[in-house]
Amino acid sequence: MLKKISVLALAGMLALPAVAAAGAGGAASGLDAQIAELTKQLEALKAQMNSMKKDQDAKLASIDERAEGWDAASRFQWSGDFRSRYDYYERDRIANNVTVTDKNEGLFTNRLRLNIRAKATENVEFKGRLAMYKAWGMQSTPGMPNNSFGNPEAWGGFPAFDGTSSRQVSDNTLLVDRAFVNWNNIGGAPVWFSIGRRPTTDGPSAQLRMNNDERMATPTAFMDWPFDGISVGYAYNNLLGVTDAPGRIRVCYGRGFDGGLQQDATGTNDTDFAGVSWDLYKKGSRFFYLQSFGAFNVFNFPDWADGSPAPGWGYTDGTRINRGNIYHTSAVYEDKYQNLNYFVTGGWSQTDPNSNGMLNNYDGMGTYSVANTSTEDGYAIHLGVRYDIPNQPFKVGAEYNHGSRYWIGMTPGHDDMYAAKLATRGDVYEVYGIYDIPGGEAISKYGKAFIRLGYQHYEYDYTGSMDWNVKPYDVDSAAERALAANAGQNVIESADQVYATFEVYF
Q: Of 50-54, 155-159, 410-414, where does mean pLDDT reach its minimum?
């Protein structure tokens, strides 16, 4: 285009001497003709330029539309994992002073989880996870008295409720496992606010056994309970004047049960959680964490999804009541020495009952004797190691945990299939191996595939793991076993479980 303009201008300049030398009549006639020709060419050039501008505008608009589409797609980050699992479970149950062996020789399950992450603004972000968890060949929980998994004192223990949603085997429905929003950098400070269904399952130090070297949840594994709530947090780089000691502290609130609309001062109060979650120190492989919370106005039984109560939860007529408060504190220390990962976790629980009592004794005649309104303290310890074999795709690990007579593990969302090991009033031993599949380079930062094989052995000292309604009865006492049976508790002496998983993260 510039070349054409230059040629036309040069032609005009060359024509001027000829015009000046011509006669007046001839000059005017020739000049008019040349001007007319130049005008014609300029109009054509102008039309061509307008056409080129329209094409350019159309292309820019198309690019803008595509860029908007690209932006909409790039705002959403997707990842997920899929697990197929096999379980063999066998236990020794004492009934009428006779040991009975229950077993399931082959339970297969599939679990699919999809993670989504998106920013609404620079400092406001959404995170969520959908989960499907089902048994092979079933659209319901397979072959369980009380139709559920969860508590070792029944074959499965809990009917489905909010604290097990997406965490126990059910059907192929995608459920909302996590969904929350973070408002970060409030006022330009290292402060954030978060609200929604919380990341409160598979906490430290479960990530070692599950082959996830990053922490998967906020609270320790002693608190394995999906719930809805709020947290406000603050991050720091120096702890109490100690330079280069980073960590963060959160104040948390959650709802465990909503009592609904009811007449004032009657019915069942809401059950709420409130506490502090504190990463005292987190740098590299070293992690020191403390949490302390209260569960207030705890229920005798939660809101079952099928609407029906289940036996063994401390009532006879299906009436829901509040029993008081439970206080819970635990701490975990994790670190790594060369290829050896290790952790130590300790926990304390205390009941603070109202007039309805907690951990009540059963008289064997269909009712409770005097309600236990005394506080009862429980303790637990959890130890573990995992050795990553150098230059090999193998890892091996071992764990041990012990819970005292009155220990209450808040773990309905556990991942142990049948029995929540960290709620056990007794001892649990576990060994496992992990094989990282050499499937080539990972396609994304989330990509990995592995096989996990493990064995768990449970030795129960007392009944009622995680139950705060009924007194924990001594498994070795015939008289107390009879009381436990009359209270609707199964008396489990020991149990063994073998599991194998094939897991893919993408």
A: 155-159
Secondary structure class of 152 (helix, strand, coil): coil
Mean pLDDT for the chain?
87
Cα–Cα distances in angstroms (integers) from residue 368 to residues 50, 260, 338, 379, 434, in the given order:
93, 28, 55, 26, 48
CB–CB of 330/345 below 8 Å?
Answer: yes
By the 8 A CB rule, do 84 and 112 touch?
no
DSSP line for 55-118: HHHHHHHHHHHHHHHHHHHHTEEEEEEEEEEEEEEEEEEEETTEEEEEEEEEEEEEEEEEEEEE
Please give the pLDDT value at position 151: 43
pTM, 2 dp: 0.83
Task: Give SS3 for 328.
Answer: strand
The string of pLDDT tens digits covering residues 366-397 is: 566 678 999 999 999 999 999 999 999 999 99
Helix axes 2-21, 24-74, angle to 10 degrees: 170
* φ/ψ (deg, to 5) at 288: -125, 120
**Closest C-alpha among 217, 280, 282, 228 to residue 252:** 228
- Beta strand residue intervals within 310-339, DSSP E: 322-337
Q: How far apart are CA 43 and CA 475, in angstroms?
A: 103
For 208, 305, 314, the CA distances from 287, given in Å and listed in that order, are 13, 38, 39
- Scored b (16 or more CB within 10 A) or e, 339-352 reads eebbbebbbbbbbb
Residue closest to 387 by CA, chosen among 428, 341, 356: 341
Helix, strand, coil % over all residues of the chain, rounded to 5: 20, 45, 40
**What phi and psi, each to the nearest 5 degrees, are found at residue 48?**
-65, -40
143 to 244, 251, 500: CA distances (angstroms): 54, 41, 20
pLDDT digits (tens, 9 = 90+) for 147-200: 333 344 443 455 688 998 999 888 899 999 999 999 999 999 999 999 999 999
